[in-house]
Amino acid sequence: MPRRHLLALLAALSLAACQMTLPFTGDKPPASAALPGGKIEVTVLDAAPASTEIPAAAPASAANPPPAPVAKAEAPLSEPAAAPLPAAAIPPLPPKSATQLRCERQGGDWASNNRSALKTCVKPTGDGGKQCTRQTDCKGECLARSGTCAPIKPLLGCNDILLADGTRTTQCIE
After folding, report:
1. Which entry of 59, 66, 74, 174 is 20 to 30 Å from 148 by CA?
2. What is the tens place of the pLDDT at every residue in 139-163?
3. CA 31 to chain centre
4. Using CA atoms, how far apart are residues 35 and 20, in angstroms rounded to an integer?
5. Domain map of the chain by residue range?
6. What's the pTM value of the predicted model, to 2 decimals?
């Protein structure tokens, strides 16, 4: 949940707790349940108020207490931006190989299985999710657990697949 939603929820819960009254019986709520001050103003939390200036303070007296200070409108809450690193601290990306460039031009992703530093070109099959009962029903592999064609090929790691004759096996590609 984004931080601003969490803060809004906490503020709403705090306000609700302040407004809680004991249950009553009868047709009308007790007079103490009425809100003092008359009209209630509703504003949007993310919108800036029409004026962000603080009004000039009038002399305080016992009958006329000073108004609460009005804070300037702030930008909506968001995740703090990370401080940019100096150019010297960012290591340069290694150059792409001809094989990697060819893979990316053909719509593939240059990927590894997280267990090895070796990388390969992983391409979409085009028939991912289609029902299958054997490998020959798919452009890639037929996944044994779901009975559907794999969305990519090759499948890295260990996967239960169905062979061309429908036999179930586990295939591991590191």
Report:
1. 174
2. 999 999 999 999 999 998 899 999 9
3. 46
4. 12
5. 99-173
6. 0.45
